[in-house]
Amino acid sequence: MHDIHAQRILILDFGGQTTQLIARRVRECGVYCEIHPWDLQADALIEFNATGIILSGGPESTIADNAPRIPDEILKLNVPVLGICYGMQALVNQLGGEVRAQQNHSEFGYASVSVQGNNALLDGLNDSDDKSGAPALDVWMSHGDRVEKLPDGFEIVGTSENAPIAAMAHTDKNCFGIQFHPEVTHTLQGAAIIERFVLDICGCEGLWTPGNIIDNAVNSIRDTVGNDDVLLALSGGVDSSVVAALMHKAIGSQLTCVFVDNGLLRLNEGDRVMETFAENMGVKVIRVNAEERFLTKLAGVEDPEAKRKVIGNLFVELFEEEADKLQNVKWLAQGTIYPDVIESAASSTGSAHLIKSHHNVGGLPSSMRLKLIEPLRELFKDEVRRIGVDLGLPGSMVYRHPFPGPGLGVRILGEVKKEYADILRLADNIFIEALIKHDLYNSVSQAFTVFLPVKSVGVTGDGRRYNYVVSLRAVETIDFMTARAAHLPYDFLDEVSRNICNSIPSISRVTYDISSKPPATIEWE
């Protein structure tokens, strides 16, 4: 079996908003990669044993005091390096070139980069010829400073109107820098550039495929678990469903799934989960009805982080209670995926800020008796979906919209009450069913309804209503790290709003959230 981690790309994150997109593009080349903060310790950097290194963009200026720096060990390693935007300027600054603040020459958005000379990274790529007839690339720029002088040994291999040095190369050292962002779709040859670097320059073979990932995970699960039994926290969402199929393939009857109905699920979710897994997949599933316990624990809790901790801790309590009823259960399996890990982490310097803790990353108590196993921890959402299909899961399950681990607990703003959850379940179901009916469900990446604990005046017939407000949310995204609000038709939104208000007397007003991520997050809490 191939060692799918043997060839690996290290991505050093300087705080760029699109760093996760770089990782996605590398994975699309069939190569494993990891994102680490720019201040990664020297021993960890060397231990990683990178086949190649990519330096991300970032919001800082390389010439500012205390600017993030490339670790000295990176510059000493004999592996290919690609600096993107800030990463290129950091290379120039630290290798003896010159970077200047050029407010009048900043570039944000589309630019045309003329390719010069021959180099392994850009040679042969072309979107349209420039005025001189040289090949030119349509790219996306986002920078204020610019490179004025190259370090020794580098040559200019790309120029733009506002950046005379838009791309550089040191052929002998396989070190490259590009001022633009190849990870975004606006750079038309971006995927080809990253593929050139990862496959051709770094010499990676493309071993990171769904089949190899499954084989590796199955063997790893068997080696880790041995003869122990495993309890799986089954939510019915995509991630935990794929974990269930993967664990079942690996250890069969050693797996017991526990489905906790916490009273914070979607309409008829519990019955649907039991039918799918217990009846159709032959997986052993225990259902625990715990609505009252969760709502009691959540009474009076308003802070989102506090709610996540409460929900996460109670989940573990219930799983351990169920484990005590069984023999030989030593492990708790969860559907943690790579974006959960990224969003819950902060760099050692604090330059990466905690956005929110995930129930399955930051919400678990240190006193937990069961050992944790997370087979999807290295995977992005689209990778999880692909291996789900390869494992034979139905498309209706694999391509279902994500549902947060704390469920409606983070879609009810402020304190969680049964009344609020019951209202939200009905409204959310009307929204989702309408998306399916109008063939819009698969055109958005995630859609849901949020309950706002405020009341608004409305009118029913000749009477006054003073009831609750809900907000609809639908987004389009590739990686769930950045997203834009879906441009749903107004007629559709009008229909959904009328149906919700007419069907649910407790709701007097429906709004639509048009916020992008960033600055907002996809979920409201």
Shape: globular
- Report the count of strand segments: 21
What is the C-alpha radius of gyration, as a whole number of Å?
Answer: 25 Å
Mean pLDDT: 89
Number of helical elements:
15
CATH class of the largest domain: Alpha Beta
In the predicted model, the low-confidence regions spanning at least 5 consecutive residues are: 346-363
Task: Walk me through this protein's architecture.
It is a single chain. By secondary structure, the chain is α/β, with parallel strands linked by helices. The strands form four sheets. It has a ten-stranded mixed beta sheet. A five-stranded parallel beta sheet has the order 15-14-13-16-17, with helices on both faces. The chain folds into three domains: 8-201, Rossmann fold (3-Layer(aba) Sandwich), CATH 3.40.50; 210-398, Rossmann fold, CATH 3.40.50.620; 417-512, GMP Synthetase, Chain A, domain 3 (2-Layer Sandwich), CATH 3.30.300. The chain has helices spanning 19-28, 42-48, 72-76, 86-94, 190-201, 210-225, 238-251, 269-281, 291-298, 304-325, 338-344, 381-390, 395-398, 418-437, 490-503; strands spanning 8-13, 32-37, 52-55, 81-84, 98-101, 107-115, 128-129, 135-143, 145-149, 155-159, 167-170, 175-178, 229-233, 255-261, 285-289, 329-333, 371-373, 446-460, 463-476, 484-485, 507-512. The longest helix has 22 residues, at 304-325. The model is unreliable at 346-363 (pLDDT under 50). A hairpin with a 5-residue loop joins strand 7 (128-129) and strand 8 (135-143). The two termini are 42 Å apart.
